[in-house]
Amino acid sequence: MIATEAFGFILGICGVQARIGLNERIGQHFDADVARISGTAPTLDHLQDPRYRDQMHALRERMGALGMAYNSFVNSVNNLVAPVTTIIVALGADIRLLLLLLIGAPASWWAKSTMRWEQEAEDESAKAGRRSKHFADLTTDPVAASELRVFGARDTLLRLLGREAFAWRMPFARAEARGAAFSSGVTVLYVIAAMGVLAWMAHDALHGRVSPGAFATGILVVGQLRDVVGSLQGTVHFLGQTLRTVKRYRWLQEYGATAAAAHSGTTPAPSALHDGLTLQDVTFRYPGADRDALSHIDLHLPAGEVIAVVGENGAGKSTLIGLLTGMYDVSGGKVLVDSVDLQDLSLDDWRQHCAGAFQDHLKLELTAREAIGVGDLEIPDDTRLLEALDDAAASDVLTALPDGLDTQLGPSWPGGVDLSGGQWQRLAIGRAMVRRSPLLLVLDEPTSALDPATEHKLFDRYAAAAKETSRAGGVTLIVTHRFSTVASADRVIVLADGRVAEQGTHEELMAVGGHYAELYGLQAAGYR
Length: 528
Ligand SMILES: Nc1ncnc2c1ncn2[C@@H]1O[C@H](COP(=O)(O)OP(=O)(O)OP(=O)(O)O)[C@@H](O)[C@H]1O
Prior knowledge:
By secondary structure, this protein is of the alpha/beta class. Helices cover 61% and strands 11% of the residues. The strands form two sheets. The chain has a six-stranded mixed beta sheet, with helices on both faces. A four-stranded antiparallel beta sheet has the order 2-1-4-5, covered by helices on one side. Strand 7, helix 16 and strand 8 form a beta-alpha-beta unit. The longest helix is centred in the middle third of the chain and has 53 residues. The mean pLDDT is 82. The site of adenosine-5'-triphosphate has 13 residues, from helix 10. GO terms for molecular function: ATP binding. InterPro entries: AAA+_ATPase (IPR003593), ABC1_TM_dom (IPR011527), ABC1_TM_sf (IPR036640), ABC_transporter-like_ATP-bd (IPR003439), ABC_transporter-like_CS (IPR017871), P-loop_NTPase (IPR027417), Type_1_exporter (IPR039421).
């Protein structure tokens, strides 16, 4: 007897452990899949789409429900099977007791309505939820915190956070209040119905048509029948929540498939460029924007050249880089890689042939080795990383790190080291230099955080790196506001208001005496 009890106890524990393990595995699978769909979309358009961001927010809020799907299914089966005994006992006592189960109909309707209200609350609050998270992140970000303190904007931020958090939670509170009111209504209805049935049975018991035993059983079973109705209610509700999350997950899968289909090119990228990169009548507008960021651009970027792109703020320089690296699909026209439309190329493959340092570079809080070699962590030894740092004139950044390449970056980690803005930027440039002979090397304002001496050193290295890039016909594109870089480029493109205003060599543009010559003159005067 004791052995049987013990065996049952052990089996029970194993069952619970297996269920927890399975829940976790299912949850992890869904987490990984959602990250995969979001992270592997070929272009970045989805990250600009508010609909996508809202759905992702709602899905993240309920991700746990997917992990619990198996558990809720087992519970639901349990909830539906367990009441059978109660129903048999009620049936044995008096069939009229089963009338109480009819209350299950409004209870299920309650569950369905609650689900609808919850879904509406999720949709309605997603935007405020995202805003509230954004403000909450700002309060914990050290860079944001210092700027907010300087402007004395901390209280404003906290007020905004409070307002958005309220707007986020309010629809849920409303849905819950409606659900609770309706649930109380169902309970009152049940109590009235139960009293009615018991009064009817009592009347029959007084006239000898119902035995006292059956009446007593009726009194006992009435409470249990309420539990049957309640568990039916709970099951419909729980399943509804899971289904709703699955629906959002399906929406995300379809969205991912549509995004992938929009860029379905599979042609491998060439191993070398012969002609170069060409933009034919290219127009681009960001999703949701009301004007084009680039309009009717015709450009040829010859293989092997170092090309500088200049222009005032908002002229479209970074957008041009975004289109050449395939981050966005053009709205009109074509980008050609030699003679192949970028649309027909496998973007993954094309990006294997691109390298870049960007204006808003990442501060990867990893070890220095990982932060520099993140594009290719399989590199067998450190030689290439050290060469890349040398190309980026960033070897001294490494020398200053206490554990060299093993140093943990980021002050919020144990033993982590923070870097200055310029040091982070030079590591980012080092990262760009790890890939040898890319077909497109983009340096988007790579020197904005650097001092003039470092900048000068850096440009000598760029020239050497660009020569290596040009061996495979690679194009080096430097976006800059500093004209000292521009003069040594093979070609300068001047963008203004999303259009090509001028192009040519530094000497040609100076001779024309147009926009470029004017900007160059202004900057040169500033340095005198
Ligand atoms: N994500 C975006 N969504 C909507 N519009 C954008 C987005 N990014 C840029 N724009 C708009 O596109 C135009 C070109 O911006 P872009 O960043 O390419 O300019 P830029 O020349 O690189 O400017 P800067 O010198 O200030 O870096 C601008 O009008 C800008 O407001």
